[in-house]
TrEMBL record:
SUPFAM superfamilies noted in UniProt: Bacterial luciferase-like, P-loop containing nucleoside triphosphate hydrolases
InterPro entries cross-referenced by the UniProt entry: Luciferase-like_dom, Luciferase-like_sf, P-loop_NTPase, SsuD_RutA_monooxygenase
Keywords in alphabetical order: Flavoprotein, FMN, Monooxygenase, Oxidoreductase
Listed name of the protein: Luciferase-like domain-containing protein
Stored Pfam families: AAA_33, Bac_luciferase
Luciferase-like domain mapped to chain residues: 192-437
Amino acid sequence: MVDAPLPDPALVVLVGPSGAGKSTWAAARFRAQEIVASDDLRAVVGSGPSDLGASADAFELLDRIVAARTGRGLTTVVDTLGMEPERRRRHLGLARARGLPAVAVVFETPLALVRHRNRIRDRPVPAGVLAGQVRRLVDAAAQLRSEGWDQVRVVAPESAASPPPRPRSAPSSRSHDFGVILQVSRFPWGEEPLAWLTDIARATDEAGLQGIALMDHLIQIPQAGRAWEPLPELWVTLGVLAGLGTRLRLGPLVSPVTFRPAGITAKAAATLDAITGGGTFLGIGAGWWAREHAAYGLPFPSPKERLDGLESAIETIRALWAAGTKPYAGQRVSLPETTGYPRPAGAVPIVVGGTGARSLRVAARLGDGCNVPSDDATLERAIPLLRAECDAIGRPHEDVAVTVLDVPVVGRDRDDAWARVERLRGRAPAGTFAARHHAGPVSDHRDRYARLFERGVSSVFLALPDLSTPEDVLALEPLGSS
Ligand code: UTP
Ligand code: MG
């Protein structure tokens, strides 16, 4: 592939995950002195290129070198992951101030190739961190378009290995959290829990779905199965999924605040986000099922107290995730300090589950999203209510995402869909059950989701009422990003 010439002198900022080939690309085109690499500077001020403890010093130096070189109108190639928008903008500002053309170079190296190169390195980056970087690249690539670069150039080497998995979603469709996430609410894993979880997660990734959400209950709920079926603990199971190194976003939908003190939930979600390199979401709600609380010896206070608890929980969680360690004195909660490390790698959206007026108010005031059932009647009522609550406090509607839980019967064709209805409906009349679960082939669901997205829904949490094997998940591929 022959590149068009780059402007020279210029500021050139590289953007790509570890092992994408950034340093190799730069070395083939620029003099060593023109390249400012965070790895090299870590080796200068620390013990070596992967001395992460030396990062702060290295980046301080890097910024000074970029300022000095661009200030002199010299070609400067910034060789870092390039995924921090603020640093990119600072560097772009320096180039602008000096009238230097500014070029961003995005490395869309296939994931399989990046993984392969990473594995054979001296000090491989952990698989989860690498997956997080690849995920953040999708966001960065979308942001770059609006940052004001003179050129955004894409370097996309051919994969030597097998075809890469599809990207999580096309940058063009990512104005916000658009997509379909598999909600797993039943765990028919037979004798092999770990193998089943692994296969389901890999199939979800392969189908191009955005992530996996886990229900948080202590006993299997009647809507999803029978009480003696396995229902694993939420955060242990998310930890297993996190270790698989997929690009899936992970989180609970919905975790009742009655199960754990809010600080513990903040800690768990921050840890999950840190070890996966971002992409965690946190669905929380007031809890509803008395039986599981009684069985596990947990208090189950009145609805009002639980909703009060939901508000306090969100405050506590946000305080512990925020930068710094200072004391926190909020509306409902006071904490003598807010020391919480690891911090989440990115912004973890808090999605408030619940359709009641008070839940929607909590979502509008304190949440990043609200999650409601996907049926028309609920949406017709909930979306205007949510928006009215936003208006009441002057919050833009788009700040609070509407997500839905959808429980579709998905068949290979109409016949198969009806066979599933017959198996699943219990005592419900087939017609009622089929309508409630939109029984049909996957193409019907794709059209239905397109209408939901048009209506302002930003994510669909899809729970298969008869999820059993990875093939069930692979069949959802038409709903994944293409
Ligand atoms: P680089 O070291 O160039 O990647 O290549 P990078 O993007 O700068 O990675 P970080 O961010 O510093 O971690 C990674 C490996 O891939 C090989 C290089 O030789 C190196 O071992 N590589 C790179 C190729 O084999 N072919 C290429 O076209 C590019
Ligand atoms: Mg490098």
